[in-house]
Specification:
By secondary structure, this protein is mainly α. About 65% of the residues lie in helices and about 10% in strands. It has a two-stranded antiparallel ribbon with strand order 1-2. Strand 1 and strand 2 form a beta hairpin. The longest helix has about 35 residues. The two termini are about 20 Å apart.
């Protein structure tokens, strides 16, 4: 994870330069006053949506917690909505466009699925089960592995207090 962080300053610099190039190009096409007004209006809309998305995320989390359901879907949906509103609130045409796209339902579902998969990779299977509910796992049957290779054994895994049979688990992992 640390290896990816060293490119963050370079990525931020590239994003700022790209925003500047787009601003100048749009400014030449429709006029700088209209472009500045569009950026200001998008940022104002983003601030309004930021509050709305935050409240929506909190209500969804609270409702799922009160119903005793895993809150992961509401949390990831709220995070994607908040990210979209935040990108819209930032001054810039490209960040605003990406922010608006993240607020469109089909794109939001795709992004939510990506956020959920990333979260599941970074937490233990027990925490992922508590957040997102029981997992479904495909078990492939095939030729046996060589005797000296580490073997993944079929086990019964407890996920949120429920036993799930037939799950393949690496030795030493929950």
């Amino acid at each position: 994870m640390r290896r990816g962080l060293r490119f963050v300053p370079l990525a931020l610099l590239a994003a700022v330069l790209l925003e500047l190039v787009v601003f100048v190009a749009v400014g030449r096409a429709i006029g700088f006053g209209a472009t500045l007004l569009a950026v200001f209006a998008a940022s104002l809309l983003g601030l309004v949506l930021l509050r709305r998305e935050g409240m929506r995320a909190w209500r969804g989390f609270k409702a799922s917690a009160q119903a005793g359901q895993p809150p992961g879907r509401q949390v990831t949906d709220g995070l994607v909505g908040l990210l979209g509103a935040l990108l819209l609130a930032l001054p810039g045409l490209l960040s605003g466009l990406v922010g608006v796209l993240l607020l469109v339902p089909p794109v939001r579902r795709l992004a939510r699925g990506g956020v959920q998969r990333a979260a599941e990779r970074r937490v233990s299977s027990m925490v992922a089960g508590d957040l997102f509910g029981p997992r479904r796992v495909r078990v492939r049957r095939g030729a046996a592995a060589p005797a000296d290779a580490p073997v993944a054994e079929p086990t019964v895994v407890v996920d949120g207090g429920r036993a799930i049979e037939g799950e393949i688990v690496e030795p030493g992992r929950n």
